[in-house]
Amino acid sequence: MTADAVAVGTTPVLSITGLTIGIGPRKAPKPIVTGIDLDLTPGRIQGLAGESGSGKTVSSLAILGLLPANAVVGGSITLGGAEGPIELIGMGRRQLNTIRGRRIAMIFQDPSSSLHPQLTIGSQLTDHVRTHMKLGRAQAHAHAIELLERVRVPDAEEALGRYPHQFSGGQRQRIAIAIALACDPAVLLADEPTTALDVTVQAGILHLLRDLATERQLAVLLVTHDLGVMSAIADDVAVMRHGAIVEAGSREQIFGSPQHDYTRELLASLPSAQTLPAALANEEDAR
Ligand SMILES: Nc1ncnc2c1ncn2[C@@H]1O[C@H](COP(=O)(O)OP(=O)(O)OP(=O)(O)O)[C@@H](O)[C@H]1O
């Protein structure tokens, strides 16, 4: 368990309060996110759903201070930890660099964006852990094997010597997850982690994220426009529209008795909400 994971049960490790984001000229930025509240809790997957352009990605990028330079951010994002909560909004680049990858990690739709095409998986994993965790060569090698085994990449030791293009898309996403988990972060931000994968491969990655959240007490923010993905693994769901959260609740509440018209529209318009859970069930049978 990490130092950050002192908060157990329902105590959030990351709290977003009144987050606003505008992008554009400082005096008149275009409002993109207009005040959202979200809590991420150890061991739970918080889904953030909504149509394209609703502000899901910019909200998650704000957590890591990765918005463009012309973004104006307001509100509060606090990260809990052994030394008390720290405010991420307005934090300097150097301090943010000590948090990115170590206490809050991120995976993206395209795993290749997290992987260097000309370096072996082994050098990417070991470089990462040696830089961040100050491990020696042998320890870093052993940790890299353990990480690949944790994300269920077969023949982990042999896999270390291969290049990203020698793996399938699903395996590349598993490797990107291994790199994200290398420093035992408290929070994982996953932005459309399975959108580029076919539905049966999606199911394996979603199971992995579910298991990791529970086993590692990771607090996961799952950003996706796909309510099928959401219904498969999220514990809690927030639905965004035009930069605001229109409805939030447990997965059972949102899928069982949606209150907002927009949530009902989204549920009605997404056939994958039916197909993905079936693929997940098949994958579960196969395990
Ligand atoms: N760098 C930027 N400059 C200007 N506007 C931006 C920038 N990045 C995002 N936006 C705008 O912010 C809004 C929200 O974008 P965001 O990427 O967060 O949407 P999203 O909900 O994640 O959509 P998708 O599911 O398509 O990724 C969009 O209108 C987008 O055009």
Automatic annotation (TrEMBL):
Segments forming a coiled coil: none
Location of this chain's protein in the cell: Cell membrane
SUPFAM superfamilies hit by this protein: P-loop containing nucleoside triphosphate hydrolases (SSF52540)
Keyword annotations from UniProtKB, A to Z: ATP-binding, Cell membrane, Membrane, Nucleotide-binding, Transport
Pfam families associated with the record: ABC_tran
GO cellular component: plasma membrane
Any GO MF annotation of the entry: ATP hydrolysis activity
Residue intervals of the ABC transporter domain: 14-267
UniProt membrane topology term: Peripheral membrane protein
InterPro entries in the record: AAA+_ATPase, ABC_Ni/Peptide_Import, ABC_transporter-like_ATP-bd, ABC_transporter-like_CS, P-loop_NTPase
Family note: Belongs to the ABC transporter superfamily.
Protein name (Swiss-Prot/TrEMBL): Peptide/nickel transport system ATP-binding protein
Organism: Microterricola gilva
